């Protein structure tokens, strides 16, 4: 049993990966052709840096392959403005943050978003960004407040899970939440 616990703890660094979260565009923050449109995100200090930004449309013919937006963007910028969007009108686009040296290495993917015809009133992205930022901050605060490595690991995971509710779903985010779930599993194994 000790061997299993030691082996599990040895994998903690591999599980402590940070997560870039793309806030906009999203289903509620579409883009409009021929206007400036913003990509915004949150990150942690351990996230890959720099990134390349590409647009993909995997489920249709609105885009013929990946569309490169920018390369070697510093994640600390937390936003990038795309000027004069010339994408076709469509509803299955996603933004991907990829490794600049290997585009098949995807770091983050946005939700699906639409591109509307020129002349459409732009989406209000301020509320979508504020909501995502508040959700991320709440999850981080919950993780920090109760994220100690103790036998209360399972309650930490529950706390992080319930406070980071996003778009009607529940999602555990952040390194502390992931480590808490893992610690709870290890402690449960050790106590058996």
3D architecture notes:
- With 192 residues, the protein is an alpha+beta fold.
- Strands 2, 4, 5, 7, 8 and 9 form a 6-stranded mixed β-sheet that branches. A 3-stranded antiparallel β-sheet has the order 1-3-6, with helices on one face.
- Helices cover 33% and strands 27% of the residues.
- α4 packs antiparallel against α5.
- The termini are close together.
- A hairpin with a 2-residue loop joins β7 and β8.
- The chain has 5 helices and 9 strands, in the order ααβββββββββααα.
- It folds into 2 domains: 103 residues, Immunoglobulins (Immunoglobulin-like, Sandwich), CATH 2.60.40.10; 61 residues, no CATH class.
Keywords:
alpha+beta; six-stranded mixed sheet; 27% strand; globular; 192 residues; Immunoglobulin-like
Please give a quick description of this structure:
With 192 residues, the chain is an alpha+beta fold. It contains 5 helices and 9 strands. It comes from Fistulina hepatica ATCC 64428.
């Amino acid at each position: 049993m000790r061997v299993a616990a030691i082996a599990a703890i040895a994998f903690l660094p591999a599980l402590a990966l940070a997560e870039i979260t793309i806030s906009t565009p999203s289903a509620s923050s579409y883009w409009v052709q021929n206007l400036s449109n913003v990509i915004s995100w949150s990150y942690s200090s351990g996230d890959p840096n720099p990134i390349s930004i590409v647009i993909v449309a995997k489920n249709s013919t609105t885009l013929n392959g990946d569309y490169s937006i920018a390369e070697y963007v510093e994640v600390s910028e937390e936003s990038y403005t795309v000027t004069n969007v010339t994408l076709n009108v469509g509803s299955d686009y996603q933004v991907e943050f990829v490794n600049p040296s290997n585009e098949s290495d995807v770091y983050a993917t946005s939700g699906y978003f639409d591109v509307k015809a020129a002349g459409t009133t732009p989406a209000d992205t301020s509320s979508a960004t504020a909501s995502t930022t508040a959700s991320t901050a709440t999850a981080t605060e919950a993780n920090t407040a109760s994220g100690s490595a103790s036998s209360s690991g399972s309650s930490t995971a529950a706390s992080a899970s319930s406070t980071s509710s996003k778009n009607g779903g529940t999602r555990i985010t952040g390194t502390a939440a992931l480590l808490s779930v893992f610690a709870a599993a290890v402690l449960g194994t050790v106590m058996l």
